[in-house]
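Q: Structure tokens for this one, please.
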Amino acid sequence: MAARKKSFVEGAAVLAATIAIVKVIGALYKLPLFNILDDSGAAYFGVAYNVYSLLLTVSTAGVPVAISRMIASENARGRIRQSERIFSVAMPAMIVIGAVFGGFMMICCRQIANFMEEPGSYQAIFTLGPAVFFCCVIAVYRGYTQGHEDMVPTSITQISEVVFKFVLGLAVAFILLKAGYSSGIVVSGAIFGVVVGLGASIPIMAWYRRRALRRGSYRLECTDESTETRGDTLKEMLKITIPMTLSSSLLNLLTLIDVKVVMNRLKQGLMLSELQADVEYATFTKAHTLFTLPSSLIVAVSISVVPAVAAAIAVKKYREAGGVMSRSLKLMNLFAMPAAVGMCVLAAPLYYSLYGTGSVKATAVMAILGIASYFVCFQLVSTALVQASGHERIPLIAMAAGSILKVIINYTLTGNAAFGIVGAPISTLVCYLTISLVNMIGLKLRFPEKIPLARAFAKPALCTAVMAVAAAGSFAVMKLIGLGDIGGGRMKVTAGLFISIGIAVVVYFAAVILLGAVTREDISMLPKGDRIAEKLHLK
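A: Here is the predicted structure, written as tokens:
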């Protein structure tokens, strides 16, 4: 049990550290890009990525999780030959799927852009087409290595992808901008780095897999040489993948429809021109950059927990699986709660510091998205727990309910002059809150052991409350000394913001230690955790 918990937390730690690096570089990519693009360009970027996310979800959602879960289960039973068969069946299937969906995105880019009521985004949509194909291939490799509880290949390729995106994407965008090209072309240039980065990840993943097999790095013991037919293996994979794909695709499909609804309601409901609607939607797109940060870090937990839970359940160690579930929720809360509340409390200076503009509407969008970011994290981990325990249909019901509410609320609020674009983050909050609640109710009803939830939520929430007071109070002091007045100088506000964030972080970590939110057992699961626990004098 201890070994599996340690493997799970170490995997999460490796991915979390990687994603932290990836998000910093990603911010260095998006922030200057959004500052040089006009509002139309920012809107094109947002629309293109929403289309890309849908097709990527349809083609790959559930594949890494399914492969990871199947391989972890077979390894736990000693069926090593069947683990390799899973990989050999998945790869050709995903190559075909990637070619179909990637080709569709390129061939139908103009029609898709017109449907989204952003005709100028077609170049960006076209450019992202090959990315779908590359992601399908990468999904198989990542599912394979994650199933062996090896998160290093995923980490290495994520870093290489974001470096290409940052260096090549920004360089091409700046060159095209200086040459006087339109916003659509400039956005396509920025996205080109994403495509190249994904393409470069494939040979890296292939090399890691070959090396692991040659060296016997996974130290597996084959106690059962039986294998299933390729047809039966594919059938089992589809049985797991299809419900996951449907649930994730439904959310992304309705999110895509949601974008169309928002643009339509801004134009028809509020009678805004296309340019005015772009300005409104750009506010949401820009705030969305920070909104995705907490969930990107929590992806590490959701990925690492699947093979750990699946392996425990495969040998009917339900109490062990419940312990891993509780620990994953606790890790999620320790990161996601303070990030979400901090984003909400410091919404106004954050938006102004990032983009040099600020308004009551922009602050409201940022603050609501801050709270919503917590429930995105909760949704990621709760979905992973339900899927890892073999109940793939629960997330389908959860995401259907959340997505339908999202569209209804968006249609109602964004066309109302009292809300406008602020309706978009409200609908996002309600959507992910609903998904999280339905997932947890389903898990509670279906999982045979009681999951200890109190310790996963109570102390992280108390520490976060202390941090929120510190963040709000310290920024109020910054205002008194002239470093926090919105409109009083971007550099001054940025300085005051960083000081307040620094104080809040110190207070939060002090609260975590003093209130016992993190124990010696928790820390010992991390790389060099025993040494860290000694220095922190944890019990």
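A few notes: The CA atoms of residues 482 and 488 lie 8 Å apart. Confidence is low (pLDDT under 50) at residues 1-6.
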